[in-house]
Design the sequence.
């Protein structure tokens, strides 16, 4: 789960990580009040969306007095912010963070995640802060310093000191940064983060070390033990159909094509998207109904698929293991009967109880096309979608 | 020989009394697997569907001589159950459970480090050696005894590959799903090593997907070590970057983990990489034709 910058900073603050003083606000009036309370010579107004690259897109602005902060906030709220990470459609800004401006001497980078290959947490630090770190990794990988952490022992003090030295800090700032790293690691474990990124980490003219920006992604699989963090989810940042799908425990991702797909299993669902593309079509979505979907879930899946008005034909590709083909057929028949599906539906199914499933589809006398094998199914559905346009 | 499980395997089911555990313990036993019992804390001493139930893995192993365990336990306790099995000395631990917190799995893997147990999964369909035994959820009726090994990150896509092979009369030695999570116990490389050493396996199907670098690592290993023919498919050729495609591990991030990179790496290692998932079976048949030499990693037939 992604969360907003202001939420990430609040979480990190709980574990002792220094961040600038600031408040999230939803209107120009609130922004003026927040700027007043902060009492800083200068405040920064930052659009809160779940995507980076906000500065270049006009989502980060300075204000020298509360009235200016209010004016900027008024302009930002409601605007569609397009950044390198949002895609061309952008995101609508509904809240901003008003924060004290700092006297910044140095900008650095910190990142923490679990390295799949080493199966251990990996702390990364770089003196090339404030920039696109993926670009830095591609152009000058030697500027990114890495240390793997022993899961049993945690981040050792010497490891933190080593990273701090590698990114050029000395004296009081070095000690503060090393301590901050250990606090970031403590937060990472405590909240079950998938990733924490601080870009930039700044050293002020006075030698203080603060997280000027913060990105925290939480592990959805661990949400059962973090009831307090569930509220941080901002549904407005997510595709409405994807939110609806998650309520039915369906895994749906909306794409741009015209062929709706319903598949069981993530690998087979991706492979189905691939084979549609090879047949000359474009998938409208990824949809994994899971290993043991019920007839009710199949129906909900159809509803979600068909809410996307770009869909011109639907391909159902099910390999029955736990999910039996007769259950699938029951769900598909119910959906098509009750929802009045008016686009062509191609069904390819195989596996457990396949003969019973095929018999049910046939006896329903509904207008399904059936196919033997994924290749044939893809050809048929692409042809039907083209004919429907 | 098949790999990892065979007719001698003595299988325990952790989470036996749950819905999934009950169903798949019965399926495994009906397939001919020696299912020696199950573990459900608090229900020790009872019998479930004819299988004895134990409170701990340790007591189950002591009483039954189990050497493999398959886990159908909830995600919140799954990593603990893996560690319990390893602590009891179970040689093969197969974790089917999906949705285990990454940090739990990280700790369980650290616990396994230096112990003798092998973990398959988590978030996987398990494995089957057709005609001999199965541990997991792969449907037995789609498989056939034979000489092709399958290793895959996916569940149902594995069934698809098995089905294509069986239809062509190509049976399997062992079919294994390694799991779609970022952190897993057994890698492609571990499995390829086993298939390469297995006298009964003539060819291997490797099914990968976007995310991580496991396929690239496998390609390097194949180039250096594997002499048997390998056919590969990578799911997610059309997946957009930054979106997690169902599996926690299936995400293209920072421009890394794309299908194109993986396919190129495998092709360069002599693997026959098919673009379409419907061509997996035919590509294996092609590589097993006598004129192919029946073994030596021959030239690349990208796209078939």
Sequence:
């Amino acid at each position: 789960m992604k969360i907003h910058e202001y939420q990430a900073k609040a979480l990190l603050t709980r574990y002792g990580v220094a961040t600038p003083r600031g408040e999230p606000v939803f209107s120009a009036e609130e922004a003026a009040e927040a700027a007043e309370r902060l009492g800083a010579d200068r405040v920064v107004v930052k659009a809160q969306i779940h995507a980076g690259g906000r500065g270049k897109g006009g989502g980060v602005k300075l204000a020298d007095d509360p009235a200016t902060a209010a004016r900027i906030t008024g302009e930002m709220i409601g605007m569609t912010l397009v950044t390198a990470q949002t895609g061309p459609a952008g995101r609508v800004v509904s809240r901003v963070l008003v924060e004290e401006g700092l006297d910044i001497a140095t900008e650095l980078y910190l990142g923490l995640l679990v390295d799949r290959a080493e199966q251990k947490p990996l702390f990364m630090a770089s003196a090339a802060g404030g920039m696109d770190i993926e670009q830095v990794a591609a152009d000058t990988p030697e500027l990114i310093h890495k240390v793997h952490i022993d899961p049993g022992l945690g981040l050792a003090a010497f490891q933190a000191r080593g990273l701090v030295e590698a990114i050029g800090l000395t004296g009081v700032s070095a000690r503060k940064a090393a301590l901050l790293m250990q606090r970031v690691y403590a937060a990472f474990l405590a909240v079950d983060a998938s990733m924490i990124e601080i870009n930039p980490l700044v050293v002020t003219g006075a030698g203080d070390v603060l997280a000027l920006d913060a990105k925290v992604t939480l592990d959805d699989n661990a949400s059962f033990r973090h009831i307090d963090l569930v509220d941080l989810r901002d549904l407005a940042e997510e595709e409405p159909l994807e939110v609806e799908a998650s309520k039915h425990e369906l895994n749906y991702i909306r794409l741009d094509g015209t062929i709706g797909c319903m598949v069981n299993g993530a690998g087979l669902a991706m492979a189905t998207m691939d084979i549609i593309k090879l047949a000359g079509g474009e998938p409208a979505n990824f949809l994994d109904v899971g290993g043991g979907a019920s007839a009710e879930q199949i129906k909900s899946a159809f509803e979600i698929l068909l809410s996307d008005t770009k869909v011109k034909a639907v391909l159902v590709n099910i390999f029955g293991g736990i999910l039996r083909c007769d259950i699938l057929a029951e769900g598909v028949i119910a959906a098509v009967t009750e929802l009045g599906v008016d686009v062509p539906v191609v069904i390819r199914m195989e596996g457990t109880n396949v003969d019973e499933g095929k018999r049910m589809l046939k006896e329903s006398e509904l207008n399904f096309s059936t196919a033997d094998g994924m290749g044939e199914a893809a050809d048929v559905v692409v042809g039907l979608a083209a004919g429907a346009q | 020989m098949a790999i990892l499980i065979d007719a001698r395997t003595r299988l325990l089911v952790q989470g036996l009394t749950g819905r999934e555990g009950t169903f798949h313990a019965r399926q495994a036993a009906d397939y001919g697997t020696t299912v020696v019992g199950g573990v459900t804390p608090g229900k020790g001493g009872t019998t479930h569907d004819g299988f004895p139930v134990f409170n701990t893995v340790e007591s189950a192993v002591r009483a039954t001589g189990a050497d493999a365990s398959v886990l159908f336990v909830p995600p919140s306790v799954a990593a603990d159950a893996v560690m319990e099995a390893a602590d009891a000395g179970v040689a093969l631990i197969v974790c089917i459970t999906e949705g285990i917190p990454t940090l739990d799995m990280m700790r369980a893997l650290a616990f396994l480090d230096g112990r003798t147990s092998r973990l398959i999964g988590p978030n996987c369909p398990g494995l089957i050696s057709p005609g001999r035994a199965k541990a997991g959820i792969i449907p037995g009726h789609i498989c056939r005894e034979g000489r092709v090994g399958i290793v895959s990150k996916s569940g149902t896509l594995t069934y698809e590959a098995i089905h294509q092979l069986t239809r062509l009369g190509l049976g399997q030695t062992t079919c294994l799903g390694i799991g779609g999570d970022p952190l897993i116990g057994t890698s492609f490389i571990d499995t390829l090593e086993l298939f390469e050493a297995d006298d009964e396996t003539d060819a291997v199907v490797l099914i990968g997907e976007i995310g991580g670098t496991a396929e690239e690592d496998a390609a390097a290993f194949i180039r250096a070590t594997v002499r048997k023919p390998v056919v590969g498919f990578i799911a997610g050729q059309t997946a957009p970057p930054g979106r997690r495609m169902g599996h926690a591990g299936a995400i293209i991030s920072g421009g890394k983990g794309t299908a194109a990179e993986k396919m190129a790496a495998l092709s360069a290692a002599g693997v026959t990489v098919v673009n379409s998932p419907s061509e997996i079976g035919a590509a294996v048949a092609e590589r097993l034709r006598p004129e192919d030499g029946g073994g030596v990693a021959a030239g690349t037939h990208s796209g078939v």
Notes: The first helix of chain A runs from residue 5 to 14. The first strand of chain A starts at residue 22 and ends at 25.
